[in-house]
Write a structure and sequence with these properties.
The protein has about 850 residues and is mainly alpha-helical. It is built from 33 helices and 13 strands. Helix 15 packs antiparallel against helix 22 and helix 24 packs antiparallel against helix 25.
Length: about 850
């Protein structure tokens, strides 16, 4: 919500007191940022100008030399209201970026030497000495300048004094305290390239015992005991569709990236990744330029679509669109082969739909949503320049294409639980037999690649249907389909009319959003999606300190040790399976913070003209970079997530677990918190990813990433029996009034159960022999389970909850908070639960996974 002027002044005053030693950028830096160039320098050519300068020096230098230090710093302009985004952050956008004064001085010396164009070395030495005196002792500045003038003599002395005076006139006043603290000689350690203003970030989220709801016993519902008060006192802002612990961290990561993007946008000599981010940010935030351009940046794509005159040209357009990562009908990616994970192969997968789920197109209960989608198609086509009468006529035909594709698509429930649907190895000739109209050799040539001997044509039924539609559907319909998807995809990069039309459906109808997302958040979201790894090194630099890395190394070592201990005692594994499981545990890699190697960014072709054109250039570059890996050895250093992503994953092909830096913030990881909160937070998350190596998918990939069941028949039977019981158990839960799909969410529930058990044992190992501190009157193990439940804190709009049920294989967060702990006898013991209570399942109903 907005703040008034009094609040703004109070906050600004507190901000200045807290950040003593910081100052607003100089006039030179401000001009550089605002106009792209520095203000004109002093003109010393000509006798009249030099005479005027002498008169100026005669008055300016004595006055500056005896200028008293101000009693108080001048107030900065009040911060701008944050327009309701993000929560509790009304004054984050201070309006004036603050810089460390010493860092600014160092940069000025590097980029703009005060006396860089002095006529002689003597002048440089003399005036540098004078400047050093002025910096350390302002009251002795005038005599020092006189000495420099005498030493250098003549016109060159006047030049040197003028340069010194120019510096003094532009620099902020140096107080007596500043002068006393300044070391002599002035030497500073190297400073980080990028700096954060903590006042523009959210305060850390930490556990507070007052958040607990004493009226609800943890033995009835751990999630309600920990989160109910928060749920009842928190409201969603109109621009949000969900809010919770993870969203708090996502907002903070977004605000960090905002500061980084701002700094990259004004760098004079950025490296290639910084140039990409700076160009995207500058053009994305150029609201006036985008409004004036309107549809013009999209027009080349629309013209190319209108030029499609026959089926062959249609296919050629699609193949070329894949090269630019703009093919709406199917995707092409390169990743390790399931059968030979040491080598990368190409994977083709289904796409082509404007609705999130293929099952929605023929769902009788989705009639109103389908009508809204049809209206959205019409409005988008009209924005693209199509007459409304044609848009009304062609919109049903576009939906007909999508209905046909949806009917042939593999549903999400299978995509999420059966990874084999992505793996269908064929030769180019075999693929051509299945899809006669699609020449796959020609596809690879269009990407600038040599056709491989084999590749994966996933979901063959989908591609067979697509092949038929390409030939049978009228070209006018196909052009309209491509026009709609090109416009809908580009809309967030275009003028307000496009943005609002896009968000009214995708944000409002689909997710329940009630107002526009703030521009900075929308732009950063697109930058993260298209070029997030270009931001990664800078984010890791400012958000992943060395002490966090050391702490996580200790935690991961304890988790790995706990995993091995639990495998040794796992009662559903026989000796042979246990040995294979140990091999997988021994070779499992856990990487924390950021990848060990950064992706290489070459010249992408971005500039300061068009946001959409920059986004297109970046997406094309990423697709080329991905395609270049075809047939190459698998990159074991590559991450699928960027350091600023609040998420984690396990790559079964590489036996790799990645934990990005953005996740390593309170309440998940807190250097000031006790072991219980850290192991119940980040420990349970890492444990969750570890456990994925042994769930239904993990047991289908061995320690080297080869696809194949490594369980013995006995262990497979025992595992499947437990998995079936867990699926039935979770099917008995409800989330948002709807039954949980225990089969769809099975692997995530297994990972929650196994990960929480691993994390608890790791905490016990880490704290063995130390007394329980009983913080806030809670035992160590009570705080462990409370931290786990706090991570599951979330509220969302009904539409977002419905969407998540359709395309997310995680159960609702309140269900996750209760499900895994209720299967652990350690939980009942920790909270002294009476047998028969909801969270104290009888022993024969508890399921142990790892």
């Amino acid at each position: 919500m907005p703040i008034n002027a009094t609040q703004a002044r109070q906050q600004q005053g507190a901000f200045q007191r807290k950040h003593r030693g910081l100052a607003a950028p100089s006039h030179i830096a401000t001009c550089q940022q605002r106009y792209g160039r520095q203000p004109p320098g002093l003109n010393l050519q000509g006798a009249s100008n030099q005479l005027a300068l002498m008169l100026l020096l005669s008055t300016a230098l004595p006055a500056l030399a005896h200028r008293p230090a101000p009693a108080t710093q001048a107030a900065h302009p009040p911060p701008r209201p944050a327009s309701g985004w993000p929560p509790a952050a009304q004054a984050m956008d201070t309006g004036i970026e603050l810089h460390d004064m010493r860092a600014a001085a160092a940069r000025a010396a590097a980029h703009d030497p005060l006396l860089g164009s002095a006529p002689t070395a003597v002048v440089n030495l003399a005036t540098d000495a004078a400047l050093a005196t002025c910096l350390r002792h302002p009251r002795q500045c005038a005599p020092a300048v006189v000495t420099a003038a005498v030493t250098a003599a003549g016109v060159t002395a006047f030049w040197a004094a003028a340069a010194t005076a120019g510096y003094l006139l532009h620099r902020d006043p140096v107080t007596a305290d500043d002068a006393a603290e300044a070391p002599a000689p002035v030497t500073y350690p190297p400073l980080p390239r990028y700096r954060l203003d903590p006042q523009r970030l959210l305060p850390p989220m930490r556990f507070n015992v007052s958040d607990l709801e004493p009226g609800i016993s943890p033995c009835v519902s751990l999630g309600a005991h920990v989160n109910r008060r928060w749920e009842e006192t928190t409201t969603l802002q109109p621009s949000r569709t969900q809010l919770g612990t993870l969203d708090h961290l996502r907002t903070n990561a977004l605000l960090v990236c905002q500061q980084l993007a701002e700094q990259m946008a004004i760098e004079r000599t950025p490296d290639k990744p910084a140039k990409v981010i700076g160009d995207l940010w500058a053009t994305g935030m150029d609201e006036v330029g985008i409004e004036v351009a309107d549809r013009r940046p999209l027009q080349p794509a629309l013209d190319a679509i209108e030029a499609v005159g026959d089926t062959d040209a249609l296919i050629e357009y699609l193949f070329d669109a894949s090269r630019r990562d703009a093919n709406p009908l199917f995707t092409f990616t390169v990743r390790p082969d399931f059968e030979d994970p040491a080598t990368n192969i190409g994977y083709f997968a289904q796409s082509g739909l404007g609705l999130p789920s293929s099952e929605w197109y023929d769902d009788p209960q989705k009639g109103r949503l389908i009508d809204a989608y049809r209206a959205h198609v019409v409005e988008t086509l009209v924005l693209s320049g199509m007459p409304r009468s044609d848009a009304d006529r062609l919109a049903p035909e576009i939906l007909l294409i999508e209905r046909e594709l949806a009917a042939a698509s593999v549903p999400f429930s299978k995509l999420a639980t059966d990874i084999s649907v992505f793996h269908n190895i064929v030769t180019p000739e075999q693929a051509r037999q299945q899809t006669p109209n699609l020449d796959w050799r020609r596809f690879f040539h269009a990407q600038g690649l040599q056709p491989p001997a084999t590749f994966s044509l996933g979901m063959p039924t989908f591609f067979q249907k697509l092949d038929t539609l390409l030939k049978d559907m009228p070209l006018e319909t196909w052009r309209a389909y491509l026009r709609f998807h090109a416009t809908d995809d580009a809309a967030p990069c275009l003028s307000t009319a496009f943005v609002d039309t896009h968000d009214a459906f995708h944000g409002g109808v689909i997710k329940g959003r009630r107002s526009r997302v703030p521009r900075f958040a929308r732009i950063l979201g697109m930058i993260q999606q298209a070029a997030g790894d270009a931001m990664g090194p800078a984010y890791a630099q400012v958000a992943f300190p060395a002490d966090t890395a050391r702490s996580l190394q200790t935690i991961t070592q304890q988790l790995t040790s706990a995993l091995k201990n639990r495998i040794a005692q796992c009662d559903w594994m026989d000796a042979e399976t246990r040995e294979r499981a140990m091999q997988k545990a021994n070779t499992q890699r856990i990487e924390v913070g950021h990848p060990s190697q950064w992706p290489v960014w070459s010249d992408v072709g971005t500039g300061r003209n068009s946001f959409l054109e920059n986004m297109q250039a970046v997406r094309a570059h990423a697709q080329r970079r991905n395609g270049a890996q075809l047939g190459q050895p698998a990159d074991h250093h590559h991450w699928k997530l960027t350091p600023q992503t609040v998420n984690a994953y396990q790559d079964v092909s590489l036996n790799l677990i990645a934990i990005p830096a953005a996740l390593l913030q309170p309440p998940f990881h807190d250097a000031n918190a006790d072991a219980a909160l850290n192991y119940g937070g980040i420990g349970a998350i890492i444990g969750h990813e570890i456990a994925h190596g042994f769930d239904t998918v993990g047991t289908s990939f061995d320690e080297r990433g080869h696809e194949g069941d490594w369980l013995t028949p006995y262990s497979r039977q025992q595992f499947d029996a437990r998995a079936d019981r867990l699926a039935r158990q979770f099917s008995g839960y409800e989330g948002d009034g709807e039954a949980v799909d225990g089969e769809l969410t099975l692997d995530e529930n297994l990972a929650d159960l196994g990960g929480l058990s691993i994390a608890l044992q790791a905490m016990r190992q880490a704290t063995a022999g130390t007394p329980d501190p009983m913080i806030d009157g809670k035992t160590r193990e009570q705080r462990f389970f409370i931290a786990y439940a706090m991570a599951r804190r979330a509220i969302s709009t009904p539409q977002r909850a419905e969407l998540d049920r359709a395309i997310d294989n995680h159960p609702p967060e309140p269900v996750r908070a209760d499900g895994a702990p209720s299967n652990m006898r350690e939980f009942s013991t920790a909270f002294n639960c009476t047998p028969g209570m909801a969270m104290a399942r009888p022993a024969d109903q508890q399921i142990r996974f790892l």
